[in-house]
Every structure is written in structure tokens, then in C-alpha cells.
Amino acid sequence: MSLPRCRGAHAAFEENEAKDLFYRLSIWLMDRALSGKPPFSTTEALAVLLPHTELAVRMSRASTAFKGVMSLGGVRFSGMASRGWHYWVFGPSPDVEEILGPYTSLGEARVAATCVRGPADLRRTPFSGGIAEHVETVESAREDGLTAERDCVVRKLESAAGPIDQLDLPESAGIYAVWPSEAGALSDLGLREFDGQVPLAERPLYLGKEERSLTRRVATTHFASGDTGHSTLRRSLGALLDLESTPRKSRQATPDEKQLATLIQNYDLEEADDERLTEWMSKNLTVSVAPSSWKPLRDLERAVGAVLKPPLDQDRPPMWEPNPWREQVALVRGRLRERARRAAEQSYG
């Protein structure tokens, strides 16, 4: 929605709103709260008003999630970004997510007609541009923060790789990288060098994120047998090593068509080959981790991936381009999916 359309919606709202008395009272209540004179805080005023009207203002497109507080013209605003849009309310509320959460799913027309006003120097409606201009500053600061966090994570990942059985993995969120420990690993995988690309021995093969426990994701899922169907890394390595695949294990005795497609897409390995893969990984790969509390972690993962350029990247869209190894990895994974499909036909008919 453009600013002119927002202004028009706001003007029509003030002119035609049937509950005019309630909204005039709302404006007065917020003005009093912002002046610092009443016996209640801005946040308390919001707590009274928000259950009755849409005071959340959808300001502009948001490329990343955001939650925080800003100051403009002496007035503080709490804000967050969700579902691709910014939302702002008056008041430095520490519970902005709780307050605004129910409003982030409202339709465009309902949030376009807010009647909240600030003090004299902010008499323009939020749609008149005063706040929207500041949103760009907030986003710019966030991008700078992401760049700094990315650089810190890259340094950690490049300097602290070790064998999986010698690492003290943290029980926290963060980014991890899997590296080849020797040239023989690259030969086994059939990966060749390309002109103009950083040598494979100097970059991680794979990069990932973990929202809760790096120990669980790295040690229990990637470097352990029995759960290849939940590990993109193991499926890619198994395909490059030309191991035998099978549909991922299912709790359903007779999975339906959609479930079966998922079991084939996220294939397991035959038990003996699954063990071979685990042994091969332990001997030929090292791991580095970088704990991080950045939110959303997905943004940080992609930012780090764009720097380190892991050849096994199969993200959609890709972390980095052009990736000369991407097609090779996709082809061999497709081969193992086909083997899993044939095995499924024999097992489920």
C-alpha cells in the first residue's frame, strides 16, 4: 500500500468512523500518556486500547525479522517486523512482541486506518512519512549488525575445525561448518577443482545452522548412523560416495502417496552403507562451530554461506552463485532418490 493511499484511508477513517467518541478518547489517552503527566504509563495506555482497536501500524516492507525500540522527536516507539512488514506502536514496551503479535495477521485495510497521534511535533499521522523515514535507518543499522556478526562467525569457523570426537560442542544455537580433513576425501567424493574458485581444501564442504543445540545437530544427526533421512549433509555425501539408498523409515505401516514422496525425497541409506558413511565421515571430515544468538539465524547462515561458499550447498535459493558443484551434487542425489523410489515400490507396492 502506497503512502498516498494510506493517507486517504486515515482521512476517511477520521471522517467516517462510527465510534468517533471512542477514538477521540483514545487519541486523548495516548496524548496524555506521551506527555508524562497521567498516573499511568504509555505501555499501560496501549494495554487498554489495543484490545479494542488496531493501533499497530504497518509501515513498510521488512526484509528481515526485527524487534526493538527507537526514538523519534522525543517519543519512543516499540517495533517489530513480521510476515514481511514493519509494525510500530507508541511506547518503549519490553513486551512489544506480545502486544503486537495478534495484530501481525490483520488484513491490510484494518491496519491502514489507525488514528493514534503523537504530541504536537508529531501531529502528522504515522503514514505521513515521519516514522517511515526512520525505519530505513533502523534497517540499515540491522544490516550493519548482521555484517559484523557474519564476519565474527566466519573467523570462528575458519580457525577452530577439529575431528568430531575431539570437539566440545555447545548446547546452544549457532552456525557449523564441515571441512575436508585431507585431499583423499575430495578424491573419494569425486569433486574436482574449477578455475577461479577457492580450492576445495580451503573451504567448508557444508554449512548449516542449528536453532537449539549444536551438539544435537552435528554429533547426533550428521555424524551418527540411523538418521540419514533427516540430514541433508549425509544424503549428499552418501550420493557422492555412491552408496545404496532406501526410503526413510516411517511410523506408518502403509504411508499415503504424499508421505511416501517425502520418504523417498529424504531417503535413508541401507544399514551397512549408513555405517560405512559414518566411519568415512569420522576419518575424513572435521567440524567447526560458532555459537550465535542472532535472530533470525537463517539470515546469518545465508550471509556466512555467501562468504565461505560451501560446494555441497543445495539451498533454495542458493547461498551463493554460481556454484559449479551444485549440479553434480543434485544429479547424484537424484540417482539415490530413484533407487529409494524403486525400493519403495517393492516394499509398499
Keywords:
4-stranded antiparallel sheet; globular; 3-stranded antiparallel sheet; 46% helix; alpha+beta; 349 residues
How far do the termini sit from each other? 52 Å
Main sheet summary: 4 strands, antiparallel
Mean pLDDT: 74
Helix content: 40-55%
The count of strands amounts to 9
Residues in β-strands, percent: 5-15%
Strand order of the largest sheet: 1-4-3-2
Overview of this structure, please?
The chain has 13 helices and 9 strands. It has 349 residues and is α+β, with helices and mostly antiparallel strands. Helix 2 runs antiparallel to helix 3 (42-49) and helix 6 packs across helix 12 (297-308). It starts with a helix and ends with a helix.
Summarize the structure.
The protein has 349 residues and is of the alpha+beta class. It has helices at residues 3-16, 20-35, 42-49, 96-100, 108-111, 130-159, 183-189, 214-222, 232-240, 257-265, 271-284, 297-308, 326-348, and strands at residues 57-61, 66-72, 75-82, 85-90, 174-180, 206-210, 245-246, 268-269, 285-291.
List the helices and strands and how they pair.
Blueprint: H1 3-16, H2 20-35, H3 42-49, E1 57-61, E2 66-72, E3 75-82, E4 85-90, H4 96-100, H5 108-111, H6 130-159, E5 174-180, H7 183-189, E6 206-210, H8 214-222, H9 232-240, E7 245-246, H10 257-265, E8 268-269, H11 271-284, E9 285-291, H12 297-308, H13 326-348
Antiparallel strand pairs: 1-4, 2-3, 3-4, 5-6, 5-9, 7-8
Helix pairs in contact: 2-3, 6-12, 9-13, 10-13
